Amino acid sequence: MTTYYRDPEVLITSSGVHMNNQDFRLPELIRVWYTRGARDWGVIARRGALGLTMLLPLAAGVLAIGVALVIEATFATTLAFLVGGVLVGLAVVPVADLLLERVDRSYDRGSRSLEIWGRVPGGDVLLLRTDNAQRFGRVYRALQRALEPAVRR
Known about the structure:
Blueprint: E1 3-6, E2 11-13, E3 16-19, E4 22-25, E5 31-39, H1 41-70, H2 75-109, E6 112-120, E7 123-130, H3 133-152
Antiparallel strand pairs: 1-2, 2-3, 3-4, 5-6, 6-7
Helix pairs in contact: 1-2
């Protein structure tokens, strides 16, 4: 028996599938397909907020440098604005790395729910529902690999 995928909720082997607390033998699965739910605009808004969080300090730094160059102030004030603007811009670098990592993880998870459905002799059954796009891809590919040899027989 070959194991194609295993996690605490899903087991896909060459002999059968365990998903959604249900067990199916591979020959029982007549057809398998997936559906995509509506976008979660909250996830997209959080990504936008993270982007703004990264850009606002940069904009403040550029604004401080611009003000330093435009206003007619003493040399010390102009220098303070320039140094302050550069420091604010540089302070963004470590924070941006953390925020970009969060954005990457949000894309891995996805912005919509994904479902795997199967047709069995008793009708259509929901095999898996997840918001995690990466996990969905692994499970769906494993299911396709498991069903491939069954089709050739």
